Amino acid sequence: MKILYLETSSKNCSVAVSDDEKLLCLCEEVSDNYKQSESLHTYVEWALEGAGLTMKDIEAVSLGKGPGSYTGLRIGAASAKGFCYGLKVPLTAVNSLESMIEPFLGKNYDFIVPLIDARRMEVYTAVYDGNTGKELSATEAKILDETSFEEFKDKKVIFVGDGAKKAKEILSLPDADFRDDIYPSAQYLIKKTVEKIGQKDFEDIAYFEPFYLKDFHGVKKKKSEE
């Protein structure tokens, strides 16, 4: 099955194409200017060309559903819905935090904790098992302080994402690793998407909304800052 992937929840505008679990092409760029509105459809064209396919070959669309940038998520969701309507193909959606943990699974970490920078000392986060990738605590908006994640003091843990920088500055976890150069990526939506397609776990295209996490008022405020 030929699948198109869109991940627009962060500064990384990311598009991938796969044949089942085989990655055929990835096109992405990290930009502080949030280039989704101007770059997404160009990246889709490039990814399809790199995969040797046309849009008519696509049999399903997968979206990184957030949490993350309100503006980015709106653009990604609108595009994904448009492709699905036009092609009459199903839509799957994967938590964007899950696409951040895959490179670190099985690397001797007890826990992997994605941290997406929200505002001030707030992050979007969840906790995953370092070996299985199983979600251990649900996605939430969390205000960081000196006592955050202190339950991991004697554990091997890695914090990944652009929120890891401010976490490193205040957390008292000398044995923890921090990687603030990690962003959600379309290539890491593939495994979960193929599982969802096998289970026929599809979204209702008419009613699907991205995973904004915060209430609409708070997100609107964030939109004006981007």
TrEMBL record:
Residues 37-180 form the Gcp-like domain. Pfam families: TsaD. InterPro entries: ATPase_NBD (IPR043129), Gcp-like_dom (IPR000905), T6A_TsaB (IPR022496). Gene3D superfamilies: 3.30.420.40. NCBIfam families: T6A_YeaZ. This is tRNA (Adenosine(37)-N6)-threonylcarbamoyltransferase complex dimerization subunit type 1 TsaB.
